[in-house]
Amino acid sequence: MNIEIVSICDAATDTAGKLNILGAFDTVFTSAVPFKYQHMALALRIRFTRIEEGEHKVKINFVDADGKPVIPPLDGTINIRFAGNAQSAVGNLIINMNNVEFTSDGEYSIDIAINGVQAHALPFFVRTQPQQRK
To answer: Which stretches of 1-134 are DSSP H helices?
Structure first.
């Protein structure tokens, strides 16, 4: 198993196996915390080898620097099937997140586990910047 793509973005779609990502980013800027970010999506593309065919458990934790959840943990499954003699197959996952509340600035992490094993940690940053006077 290999995670080929993991990205926070403005939007993502999966059309006939094609993962479409719009506006990938890793930092949001705000004038003050706490604040709510209206919409973001987590897009994943995971490649599996033939021996890994079948169902796989996926768990995603979005946590702050202290390990406290930003959103409730997400648990799901991905079912991988192979066509013909293909030696690998991919699964695309898109998780839409609305009104995510950030209580402090700093570093966050999106931790991804597959079948109970940590597979990836994606850093995410919230930065405060004072509003500029005109």
So the answer is: none
What's the number of domains the chain is made of? 1
- 100/118 Cα distance (integer angstroms): 23
* Distance in angstroms (rounded) separating the CA atoms of residues 8 and 6: 7
- Structural domain range at position 118: 2-128
pLDDT (tens digit per residue) in 81-133:
998 999 999 999 999 999 999 999 999 999 999 999 999 999 999 999 876 66
Tell me the C-alpha distance between 70 and 116, whole Å: 20
The CATH code of the domain that includes 68 is 2.60.40.2550
| 51 three-class SS | helix
